[in-house]
Amino acid sequence: MRDLFDGEAEPPVVTMAAGAVLLRGFARPYEAELLAALRDVLAISPFRHMTTPGGHVMSVAMTNCGAAGWLTDRSGYRYDGIDPKTASPWPAMPDCFAALARAAAEAAGHGGFQPDACLINRYIPGARLSLHQDRNERDVAHPIISVSLGLPATFLFGGARRYDRPRRFALEHCDIAAWGGPSRLHFHGVAELKDGEHDMLGRQRINLTFRKAL
Ligand code: MD3
Ligand code: FE
């Protein structure tokens, strides 16, 4: 009997490193619901280009939903319950967002994940995210779950030290990645987005990252 994932096709579950798992196409069944909920979130707290503490305007545009949102400005990186652009709380995390994050975490071996923050990143062609660690969360024992939508990107996955040479993974529409255990504090980034056109999202990539920040 022919295996569904033999030949040219890639396997649906890829281990990138200890604690880091890529679930190819995992968000497919949620696609329509996710995009509708995303539109509602963006109507309340739209994308904006934040400034780093060093004074650089990020090429990636960001917003958040959930009880806490990740921010950067001249005074530093942090989580805050209030969107500085609207001076109101961030929009609530849609139920389908939380359900997908929980299901993906479970599939990656992180049962009981309860995200309170979802950082939403938008890349247009040319945008990139330089190598960094995610360490503004109170307890880094919790995993981070990321959902890729739209144009494909090259994810750069480094090691525990900034100078560890990153490996490259393609992240495509509806792929989900889970980061926990030893990989949770690894350096990572996204290479400059190549131009293209996605049937549902057009000339952009949107990434949702679910965190337990508080
Ligand atoms: C590995 N976002 O928002 S998602 C970020 O595609 C971020 O927008 C990228 O890095 C993006 O902080 C990458 C994958 C990801 C997210 C968090 C991680 C990988 C991670 C935390 C630890 C290790
Ligand atoms: Fe990150």
Blueprint (SSEs and pairs):
Layout: E1 13-17, E2 20-23, H1 31-44, E3 61-66, E4 69-73, E5 76-80, E6 82-83, E7 88-89, H2 95-107, E8 117-123, E9 129-132, E10 144-150, E11 153-157, E12 167-171, E13 176-179, E14 188-190, E15 205-211
Antiparallel strand pairs: 1-2, 2-13, 3-8, 4-5, 6-7, 8-15, 9-14, 10-13, 10-15, 11-12, 11-14
InterPro entries: Alkb, AlkB-like, AlkB-like_sf, Oxoglu/Fe-dep_dioxygenase_dom
Cofactor: Fe(2+)
Protein name: DNA-N1-methyladenine dioxygenase
Overall description:
- This protein is mainly beta and 214 residues long.
- It has a single domain, classed as Jelly Rolls, CATH 2.60.120.590.
- It is 13% helix and 33% strand.
- The chain contains two helices and 15 strands.
- A hairpin with a 4-residue loop joins strand 6 and strand 7.
- The radius of gyration is 16 Å and the shape is globular.
- The mean pLDDT is 95.
- N-(carboxycarbonyl)-S-(naphthalen-2-ylmethyl)-L-cysteine (MD3) binds next to strand 8, strand 10, strand 13, strand 14 and strand 15.
- It comes from Rhizorhabdus wittichii (strain DSM 6014 / CCUG 31198 / JCM 15750 / NBRC 105917 / EY 4224 / RW1).
- Pfam families: 2OG-FeII_Oxy_2.
- Its EC number is 1.14.11.-.
